[in-house]
Prior knowledge:
Elements: E1 6-7, H1 8-15, H2 19-27, E2 35-36, E3 42-44, H3 46-58, H4 65-79, H5 86-130
Antiparallel strand pairs: 1-3, 2-3
Helix pairs in contact: 4-5
Amino acid sequence: MSSEHMQIGEVAARTELSLRTIRHYEDAGLVVPSARSQGGFRLYTESDVARLMVIRRMKPLGFTLDEMRALLEATDRLDAGEELPPEEREALLERIRGFEHATRQRVEDLRTQMSRAEEFAATLARRLTSTPTV
């Protein structure tokens, strides 16, 4: 096995994703092992790990598998190293801008939820300290 390839266990440890989750993303077409060992084991590269990290970051923000796929397809196309017609390049960049905007909105929504949760926790703590003990 080449030093540039990693087996799924190492990838799982690096990405903090389970083997099952990585296989699920493979089944969904979001990541494809770059190679297979002679024994048929999945082999991944740093690029595959980076791709899984994008997916891992999108998941808690509520993006669907189709949305993840759309973003990855756009970034793959832009990163392919080939000359793109200006209108296609702009359409891909616009797709990424849409994801960036959606991400910022979801982060703001999470901040609001966190603030409300902290308020509630503080209310409960005050309640506990102000309730007389018997």
